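As noted in the main text, all predictions were made from sequence alone. Below is one such record, for non-specific serine/threonine protein kinase.
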Amino acid sequence: MDKYELLEVIGSGSFGMIRKIKRKKDNKILVRKEIDFRKMNEKERKQLVTEVNILRDLHHPNIVKYYERIIDKENYLIYIIMEYCEGGDLAALIQKCRKEKSLIPERFIWLVFSQLVLALHECHYGTKADGSPRPAILHRDLKPDNVFLSNNVINSYTHVKLGDFGLARIINDPEKDFAQTYVGTPYYMSPELINEQAYNNKSDIWSLGCLIYELCALEPPFQARTQILLAKKIKEGKVLDIPKEYSQDLRQLIKSMLNVMVIYNIFII
Ligand SMILES: CNC(=O)c1c(C)[nH]c(/C=C2\C(=O)Nc3ccc(Cl)cc32)c1C
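Prediction:
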């Protein structure tokens, strides 16, 4: 770690905190995700290896760039060095707009949607650097906290980056092979997960629908005091309309991603 100068802690990701760092050779600002694997069980350690391998093999302008990983065995720590996203995460932007009672401009929402579709397409259908096929990657925890911005000026172009693959999963055949256990944010849990069915690439699209809805409404589409009530609301699929200021196109887009039957159809094969 003597290659880097440690700066302030700027957030937390799955399994560890995020620290801003400066690369000494060229003063480039990066981030370091610090993970203490001392308390991790075997399954969590395997998931950590998966996260690093996935990030190392994913190269796309809308996915946070991975630089290297550093293992500090003496202190049971793994450091993942990744690109710095000056605009922070979408969760902070939503919280700011909710506090100021100001809607997020529709143009910005389409910008976020289009870039996350490109990021998910790379995950689900991308190939290796030499163009050869590789197994699909499910993110499984797409939420505002895991989407980062190159800048936080919502009226100008911003580069959107999908980050934190801490719960991601490699799937050899997305049409047949399913992840067997659900992880991630209950608010964005897709219907098939509620029926103890398996998670697959279309579940990431459901989560994208929840995220785009939340950018419009400044709150998640499904909320409840308990997970049981939340599951009931998600299965019912009833969602309050987004503010009237947004276009019919955006309304229809969200409706198509939060279409329970579309998600269920993947099991009527
Ligand atoms: C208050 N914190 C921030 O504004 C903030 C900023 C400016 N950047 C971040 C986070 C990341 C960042 O800048 N690059 C990242 C790469 C991977 C992951 Cl999991 C997180 C980050 C955060 C949380």
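The chain has eight helices and ten strands. The chain has two domains: 4-83, 90-257. These features were considered when defining construct boundaries for the mutagenesis experiments described in Section 2.9.
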